[in-house]
Amino acid sequence: MTSPNLSHGSYQLSSVCVVCAAVLSMLTAGAPAFAQTTGPAVERVSLRSRPASGDTYGADERITVHVAFGEPVIVTGEPRLVLQIGDQTRSTDLYLVTGNTLGFRYHVKASDRDEDGVGIPPNALLLNRGSIRDSHGNDAVLAHEAVPDDPARKVDGGLDALPTIERLTTGRPRQGDTFGGGESISVTLHFSEPVYVTGAPQLAIQLGTQARQMHLHLWGGGSQPFLNFEYVVQPSDIDADGFSVPADALTLNGGSIKDADGNDADLTHDAVPDRPDRKVDGASGAPSVVRVLLSRSPASADTYAVGETIFALAQFTRGVHVTGAPRFALQVGARARRASHLPRLRAAELLPPGNAFHDLGEDERNVYFQYVVQPSDVDDDGVSAPANALTLNGGSIRAVDDGSDARLSHDGLPDDPSRRVDGSRGDDEAPAVLFLTLEGPVRGVFGRADTLTLAVALSEGVTLSGAPRLALRIGAQTRFATFRERWATTSLLFDYVVQESDRDDNGISIDADAIDLNGATIRDNAGNDADLDLGYHAFSDDPSYKVDGRLTPVPALPLGGVLALLLALLVGGRRRLAR
Question: Across 348-415, where does the E strand assignment appear?
Fold first, then answer.
């Protein structure tokens, strides 16, 4: 027997060893052999909420789920997560993005039943036309195991539990551990289900030896699962130990807090003790910058094109008055750019309805700036701003109340990969629907002669000709809300007045194709026709929007009340329906 010839095999083995040695040498020398190409994976999916009473969720109670990834993630759009409730699958809304954790919630419907308890099927996380990526742009791996049915989390939508206060959270001082004069202290009450508010409930806090009343902040109607209260620190306020909230400090003050079925909320809650990182010293005076931010995303995905406007905002501790032409520095790639001051009325025209940073009136705390992208601008990492980017440029920013010069120091903004810049790009993206809003009924049900005002916010400014309309399903009838006006160049407002014959005990429905051009055109400045598909902003039989045309009209408000209501709507009272 002759020995086999191994020379060819030995040559191959030697070659492989040489390659292995080279790779090993790169690794041991600290040089990266391969770039990271795998996105963050799901580490844990867990049910977080508990039923308000016993082991069973009732109607309108909130079920919350947290999804934890192996590293921090960046989210665009509105991904969703599927729950298994009995033999039905239900889709949850994204409500929280913090570090590596996403929070989802679902409000129990009257028809929901699950005697074995809520479960989550495998691979239930869906992008829903959004994205979940790491800081390198790698798509997340969404696969995960099932969460079994939990008998401590049964569901019976026939139960009508009272809304309860689940917890209180408090805001932090803008700098350090002390709230200064003119700064707002905030406390948020989180309820077990969405609630409706009438009147002016108050929340008591303890500042040193004094009890102060906090007022409900920016309430404009509709239902929310939380209420936010604020108190503006006065010069005489002092608390060296930190403010506290006594137990059961929420009072109706002649108003009401109810769920969608008219049940009064249980107002009892635990106390929030003194915290040394939330001291109060009202004598520490001049207005100062609470925060700075960029306030509108690019019209197309994550990149500003030539001619687009980048908006910046500086928010102060109290109202300020601006003279001259202050500027705000932006870093666009390797170039330093200057955003110019945007007068208040012009800012109100350009920012969309319901913008949380509108605060119209003499106590205006927000100062806006704008920069228009030039053809030479390129920034692959995203726009940033250095610390202390706000400069007076010969102008002034002073307190409205006492004329004191504002303190302008602030932290910088890091590169934002959701705000890249490419000035060589033209606008080839059609405007798309960002969200749909509808103000809830003042008395819980829309009655005869009540006006339903719907706002459709688009991803960029548009021009319009003609009179589009928006279809509503009210009971068995299709009704059309007529076009009223184009608001802030980016939003379309539609109105419908309830007729005596209108009935819908289950709530209004709006289909994905509800916007009817009716011979009109809606285009951006580049001539792209708007994509008017409402997609997942559409909804069916929402009990928050019941209709009964037999109800008599609500008496007209006096002029002061009308103005107050309009202000509340502009400031952010609209209920967002992006479910």
Answer: 366-372, 378-379, 390-391, 396-399
